[in-house]
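Homework help board

Subject: predicted structure for assignment chain

Our instructor gave us this sequence and asked us to write out the predicted structure in token form, then describe one feature. I got the tokens but I'm not sure how to describe them. Can anyone check?
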Amino acid sequence: MFKKLLDKQSPLLETTGNIWYFLTGFFKNTFTRGFEWEEFVKQCYFIGYKSLGIVIVTGFVLGFVLTLQTQPTLKDFGAENYVPSMVSISVVREIGPVITSLICAGKIASGIGAELGSMRVTEQIDAMEVSGANATQYLVVTRVLACTLMIPLLAFFADTMALVGGFVGMNISGSMSMTLYFNKAISSLVFSDLVPATIKTVFFGFVIGFVGCYNGYNSKRGTESVGHAANKAVVAASITIILIDAIAVQLTNAFVYN
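My token output:
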């Protein structure tokens, strides 16, 4: 009976051990001499700049739709002037970081998983390891750190464009000057709104890069494993982001807003 139970749990235990081993290898190679700065800058370009377009469009539409949905209700209560504050607080605190990270999980995590998975299938990673090159430092560390740095910046651009979208939506059925709108939106934000949201995006970026690298680096043989690695990276990164956000909200409410 005990043996059957252990056999059922062994895949989970094996996966947990592999993740822990991969995580310790990442931190070990992060602080090892010979950091690949050129590859790091290259990954920052691909992860950050190449994702900027979709993040800007998403942020703009997010603020635009949020304003159009809430303006009529607040107008009925004579609180239309609170729309800029509502949009800025909701976007900066919660919606902006989470939506941006989920979009980046679909784009970046899948891309990293497919790229490293194809390198594993074609034995390029094996060739690097045999030749004495530090494959983990070159392929994994640079991508994870690039995601950790770029996702907060992308979230900042998304939040900014959400405010712009809110201004456009505000002036479709109403009339508010740009100066008044942004004064109301920015003045409603406090330091405690910005810091937890920024810290969350740092963790989100790390998760996106780490999950994508883990699934791609450890993909099995065969061309079909490349697609499986990309799919698993997206699903695992998205679920982990939602779980981290739920924990972060509880911690923020307990230590910041109370």
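Reply (TA_rk): Your tokens look well-formed. For the description, you could write something like this. The chain has nine helices and no strands. That's the kind of observation they're looking for.
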